[in-house]
Amino acid sequence: MRRGSWASRFSFYLLAVGSACGLGNIWRFPHVVGENGGGAFLLLYIFLAFTVGLSILVAELIMGRSGEHGILKISRLVSVQQKKPFYWFGRLSLLISVVILAYYSVISGWVLHYLTQFLVGLFNEDRLTYISSIDMTALKNSGSLQFALASVHLLLCGLVVARGVVERFEKIFTRMLPILVILFIILVMRSFSLDTTSDVLRFLFYPDFSKLNLSSLGRAIGHVFFTLSLGMGIMVTYGSYFKDNEHLPSVGFRVTVIDTIVSIMALLLIFPIAFLSESNHYFTDPALLFGSLPRLFVKIPYGEFFGLLFFLCLWLAAVNASIGLMEALVANLKDKYSKVSRNQATLLATIGVLFITIIPAYSGTLFSKLKVFNQSVIENLDSVLINYLLPIAGLGLIIIFFKSLNDTDRRGKFIDAKGKNSQAMYHHWVWVLKWFSPALIILAIALQLINLIK
Ligand code: PHE
Description:
Blueprint: H1 9-20, H2 23-35, H3 39-67, H4 71-82, H5 87-122, H6 127-132, H7 137-141, H8 143-162, H9 166-192, H10 197-205, H11 216-227, H12 234-239, H13 248-274, H14 288-297, H15 303-336, H16 342-361, H17 377-404, H18 407-414, H19 421-453
Helix pairs in contact: 1-13, 1-15, 2-11, 2-13, 3-10, 3-11, 3-13, 3-17, 3-19, 4-5, 4-17, 5-8, 5-15, 5-16, 5-17, 8-15, 8-16, 9-13, 9-15, 10-13, 11-17, 11-19, 13-14, 14-15, 15-16, 17-19
The structure holds phenylalanine (PHE).
Phenylalanine binds next to α1, α2, α11 and α15.
């Protein structure tokens, strides 16, 4: 267990930021915003990230630090104390994290595919033609390719976790981070100089509330959970790593700010390119990121290198987020079965997740006939997991939080002795966490269900 093994304060931050920033921001967010009509949804999302998301993020971190265990064990302890089956919430969180890791691995496999395509493109005589022909067709038509790529991704993450070289990986990742940031800024600037900019700005920052529908609230809350890695007990596990002198509410706030900035930058990167296309349907497609970016790289001098570097960084970010998920899984397994070694726990987690990966990987081929509500398996998986189950698990976490810590404990962990504001903030936070967030989550789920049967 890595608890307390990090020396520098910076690396603790990196851990939480690294888990939050990933494919959720860069791949998922743009097409969810596209699907829900742009500006109004973006406003709703930002509001929810800083209310529902931030309040739960801080609660998870505080719960981890106080409990010094993963979510599974904390929920079991609460169950014993209260003599009620609260451990189901812990189990639900863990179950979701297993399936999310499987799903996340398939999408990471897509990134890996683009990365290899750009690599192959470098050795091609006519690079530009090659790059412009890179698309999703090969992936869409082959479940085996998707499964193979997802397996490579997962096995690599498993290897890093089992070998206990997570810290070394994170050091490499930290070194890559400035490159990623600079690359990201250059690409956003380039994308912004396309002549679609004014349309994009109108679409993103001129809210048209008539575009929202009954399911928008649920979509926004679901994405807040996903992008901040909430509801799965990840942040609980991280909270147990933080040192006692770290002010957790400030950590939570900074993580939310950084995550939101990255998400908005991703919109500014993707939409100017997407708007070049005539078809509106394209904005709402999960393939939005993959479809747009190569079109930008073709326009840039040395675009093939930019493309390669971009997908490399994106993949490393995905590896980093996946490692976090797997670490939390392994930590929870070890909490429960103390005799199991770290290697065995990792092997168990990797094989289990690999098995589930089959379902999203073959969604477009083997399981293509399996459609519910006119959606494919992978689309349903995304929707059920992220829009329904994660928020429900979030409700469970809130309950466990209030049951496991009394007011004095909560206050002690929240209030910063030096900061005057945190005293006042404490009451707001408890109110949002206890009433506002649960009410919105329940409302969101109800509205989505109504929309479904309507
Ligand atoms: N938050 C990550 C992202 O935005 C996804 C993730 C979810 C990672 C859950 C870990 C756990 O990409």
